[in-house]
Structure formats: C-alpha cells, structure tokens
Amino acid sequence: MGDRLTQLQDAVDQLAQQFVASIHYINRHHNLELLGPGDQIRDVKLEPGQEEVDSHPEDVFKASQLELAQDLITKEQQIELLISILPGLDNSEQDQERNIKELEEELKAAEAQRQEAIKEKEDTMAKLDAVIRSIRRP
User: Fold this and answer.
1) Going by C-beta distance under 8 Å and a sequence separation of 6 or more, which residues neighbour residue 87?
2) 82-101 pLDDT, tens per residue?
3) Among 53, 8, 13, which Cα is nearest to 33's?
4) Secondary structure of the chain in the HEC alphabet?
5) What is the pLDDT of residues 35-91, one digit of tens each?
6) Contact 64, 40 (CB under 8 A)
7) pLDDT of amino acid 32
8) Which of 12, 41, 119, 138 is the most buried (most CB within 10 A)?
9) Angle at Cα 91 formed by Cα 85 and Cα 93, nearest 5°?
10) Contact at 8 Å (CB) between 86 and 4?
C-alpha cells in the first residue's frame, strides 16, 4: 500500500465517486412527485422502452438512501482518521527540525557502520586471497 498521503488522496477520490454514485442513484430512482403547486413534470422525448426514472418502492428507496448516507459517513471518517495520523499535525516546527536532525545522526551512524563493514570485508577478502595464493598444488 502507498504512503499516507497517497492513501488520503485515494480515499478522497473514492468519496467523490460515492457522491456521484449517490446523486445518480437518487436522480434515477426517485418518484416523480410535485413539490409545490406551481411545479410541473416536464415532458421529455424518450426512446421507446426507455423511462425517465425507474422508481423504486418508497421503503426500498429510503433504505437505499440510508445505506448511501452511511457509506458516505464511513468514508468521511476514514479520511479524518488518515488526516489525524499524518505526521506533523501535533509537532511544532522545532520538534520536526529536531526529529530530522536525530534522523540525520542515525543515518550518519549507520553509514559509518556500513563503511566499517565494507573495510572489514575487504580485509577478509585480502587475507583469504593471500591464503589461497599461498597454497601449493601437489
């Protein structure tokens, strides 16, 4: 899995897709009802066999709306969790600089150990080479 920022971006993209899917579902499956006395249902020229909306029964539609809302809330909470674990939100600039310096020191120590291991390997290889060359074949 990617780093935290990539996870956050993926979650935001998924939330946007969920918004679009929710709006599409509601637009496609609502009941055609007048909301006020001045409202009119517009006439749309549709191809034969095509319906403007595919109305679902009221209880199914409400249950679907509830599920869509819960999915949106869950995704939003996941995004908030990802944001809360991002580094630096609770650290001041000085704390972050101190952490970077500590990491640089650790890196220097690790590099020194690596160089020492390389030198030890080269010494061992030189000794082994000397031993191999000193052996005479019968």
Assistant:
1) 4
2) 888 877 656 677 887 888 89
3) 53
4) CCCHHHHHHHHHHHHHHHHHHHHHHHHHHCCCCCCCCCCCCCCCCCCCCCCCCCCCCHHHHHHHHHHHHHHHHHHHHHHHHHHHCCCCCCCCHHHHHHHHHHHHHHHHHHHHHHHHHHHHHHHHHHHHHHHHHHCCCC
5) 788 877 776 666 666 666 677 788 888 999 999 999 999 999 999 998 888 776 566
6) no
7) 72
8) 12
9) 135
10) yes
N residues, the chain: 138
Tokens of 132: 């191999």
Going 112 to 118 to 122 to 127, the CA torsion angle's sign is positive
Tokens of 1: 């899995």
Angle, CA of 29, 32 and 37, to the nearest 5°? 150
